Amino acid sequence: MQISNSYDYQSNAATKDTPWIRRTFIAIAVLFMIVMLVIPLLAVFYEAFKNGWQLYIASLVDPEALQAIKLTLITAGIVLPINMVMGIAIAWLVTRYQFKGKQLVTTLLDLPFSVSPVVAGLMFVLLFGLNSTIGGWLESMGFQVIYAVPGIILATLFVTFPFVARELIPLMQTQGDSEEQAALTLGATGWQTFWHVTLPNIKWALLYGLILTNARAMGEFGAVSVVSGHIRGETNTMPLLVEIAYNDYNFTAAFALSSILAALALVTLLIQQVMTKIQERKFAKSERLASAPELPVSANATAVTESTSADSTGKV
Amino acid sequence: MSIEIRNVNKKFGNFTALDNINITVPTGKLTTLLGPSGCGKTTLLRIIAGLEYADSGQVLFDELDVTNTPVQKRHIGFMFQHYALFRHKNIADNVAFGLTLLPKNERPSKADINKRVAELLDLVQLPQVANAYPHQLSGGQRQRIALARALAVKPKLLLLDEPFGALDAKVRKELRTWLKNIHHELGITSIMVTHDQEEARAVSDEIVVMNQGRVEQVGTSEELIHQPANAFISDFLDLV
């Protein structure tokens, strides 16, 4: 069956647009992308290295910069595993179970995307700040959330929460659960089914969700800015320090840190491209095996009867 | 292994899928559950498998009540209409899957597992596809591998849910003859679900005709043709 793709009528000489329309569209798209994406990115790297390598490296080994880099990495390191587990759990819940309120769960899942990051940060300040019930109680136990690292982690968890689940849900819905049912009939427990059947089937989508989560966790500004308190040397992540450095007229430092974040973005895109290529190549090999007989020779089924007949003593 | 279904009922919301079903399935025979869409045959098969639980009634394997036994412990082999092969495992790993799940003390050695996989691939006449992946095989080939996979753990009961429904007519006919021969060789008690009466008559030792959640008649192909119990049977089997 010929499945129509989106390239059909433009690649067909009989129906495609004239060359000048095509070139105009391409020109507009390329120009827009150069102005809005490429030039700003190049500017970041230019400004970072404008005053030479020495200053660039010096900006990065500055104690405040090192602390910011460390805090960014710690945040990502904590947020990634938590969101991986929770994302898989939510995706499993939504795609394998029917229950009242499932629609509500799916809607709530998109909440971190629709809420402004600043509002998200403020939400946590109101919930866990020193003037709140929970915050006050935690502080009496010596545990501070807002204007401290735990608050930053919470805020980052919130804004990165949907990525893994949103990647997994459509995939798991499309794949269906028949492979999992087959595993059950072959004797697999729930955990064995998940580990040997479900996980391998979702691994690429999961990896991509984690890449998106990581990119957002390292680059988040708004929500983290509100909860961090900008305490120098303690609660600044890289994006926060970029703003502080820029406001201090320390441009080289600001752009040096920005260049790392920009490089992270580019690496993220690169990994995504590579993953897509690998996956495409894996499933492009769908030629039939020429050597395998299409139909069995029904008349003489050569059965290995001793080892496959049912054992009447009940031994498997 | 003989199967007995006693007073099984199943409702989905307001829809009665199974209404007081009582049947026995003789040991070593291939019994078909035949009927139009929605008659409850697949539901009954899945209840026998343990993939669904009945609302009331009992399922007995060799007179042992397995009604509340989980599917993993029922020692069955199940074949799905759309094969349900593990897409990310190669054929050999697919077939070996059930064996690799056995607890350490029961699990055969790697060499023994490979040997058994090779035997099963010979049985289904696809010895050369061990390293291929499911998407490289045709539908008929995939279903044969699905049978090999189901047989790997030596089940005492083989359940087939419209196994040839997704295949084209020629392959369907060839495979049904092949299945009948395999069943004849192996002698495993088997229950197959189909809505194709020609297929049922070609393959089965016994047919259970179902309609709207109830058993209409049980008998061999000959009995159903010569002594249809009611108008539904005559109509469904195209008997004028």
TrEMBL record, chain B:
What Gene3D superfamilies does the record point to?
Answer: P-loop containing nucleotide triphosphate hydrolases
Query: By its UniProt entry, which SMART domains does this protein fall under?
Result: AAA (SM00382)
Keyword Transmembrane part of the UniProt annotation: no
Which residues are in the ABC transporter domain? 3-237
Where do the coiled-coil regions begin and end?
none
Q: Which UniProt keywords apply?
A: ATP-binding, Nucleotide-binding, Sulfate transport, Translocase, Transport
Q: Name one GO molecular function term.
A: ATP binding
What name goes with this protein? Sulfate ABC transporter ATP-binding protein
Q: Which organism is it from?
A: Psychrobacter proteolyticus
Q: Corresponding gene?
A: cysA
